[in-house]
Design goal:
The protein is about 40% helix and about 10% strand. The protein is of the alpha/beta class. Helix 6 (about 145-155) links the parallel strand 4 and strand 5.
């Protein structure tokens, strides 16, 4: 989907992008080839070619932030799967609904084939450095919950420059409600061993742990890790369904995507 994306190029918004798709322009390479027929002035064509060359360089260099700074926030999902290795799936547990009235207790980060959990009072302070290794952040409602909480807990936290909030992607696809409800409707995710645990239970488990029940922390961490790891198949599904919805298949006959130029 990323190579078929044009909204990060100057002067191209969603309407123009859709018109290009309908006319059979499939990717950046096609756009360069078709530029003479688009009625662009010489300077405009030169700028377009430079921006597409810069897009190829950013993709080749694994610079997700280059696209994040140019794409609308709601279109950050388009960087997947090209930046899968740069992607961190994140979920937090807290003692309240407001970052001013509660604390972060457990945070899990899933990415590059590994899942790590951070616990308040143990190693939570290591989270910012660990998260800085990634260029893409995936959450569920994280733009309104997880990120504001973490911003209060860590004022110097550098959030990855690309943030994909699955709650709003699934809303575009007609699916609303919480994470677990969407998992159930799509038949995705694995909650083995933490069935029946919900948000309020997470608060209770933390309180039990603070009273000396180490088993409560184990259950809380496993619950948080399930919330985090399950974001990966949900992202795959959302990207697939949004791509199918957006791209006019009749204008895109079966031709493999253009390969990047050598050296990119």
């Amino acid at each position: 989907m990323l190579r078929a994306t044009f909204q990060h190029l100057a002067g191209i918004g969603p309407v123009t992008e859709a018109e290009l798709w309908r006319s059979g322009v499939r990717d950046w390479s096609d756009l360069v080839e078709r530029a003479p027929s688009l009625g662009l002035s010489g300077p405009a064509r030169t700028r377009l070619e430079r921006e597409i060359a810069a897009s190829e360089r950013a993709l080749g260099a694994g610079d997700a932030g280059w696209f994040g700074r140019r794409l609308p926030d709601g279109e950050h999902w388009r960087v997947h799967p090209e930046f899968a290795r740069e992607t961190a799936y994140l979920d937090i547990e807290t003692t309240g609904l407001s970052p001013y009235q509660g604390i972060v207790t457990v945070v899990s980060v899933h990415g590059r084939g590994a899942t790590r959990s951070f616990v308040a009072g143990e190693d939570l302070e290591e989270l910012p450095a660990y998260l800085a290794r990634f260029g893409v952040l995936v959450t569920f409602n994280g733009s309104r919950f997880d990120v504001p909480f973490l911003a209060i807990a860590f004022p110097d936290l550098a959030v990855p420059p690309v943030h994909i909030d699955l709650r709003f992607l699934f809303y575009r696809l007609g699916l609303s409600g919480g994470l677990k409800r969407i998992e159930e409707r799509l038949g995705l995710g694995d909650r083995s061993g933490v069935e029946g645990i919900h948000g309020l239970d997470a608060v209770r488990l933390w309180q039990e742990y603070r009273r000396g029940n180490s088993g409560a922390l184990d259950r809380l961490v496993r619950y948080n890790r399930a919330d985090t790891v399950n974001l990966e198949p949900l992202l795959e599904r959302a990207v697939r369904d949004l791509s199918v919805r957006l791209l006019p298949t009749r204008a895109f006959p079966s031709r493999p995507p253009s390969a990047p130029p050598r050296g990119s």
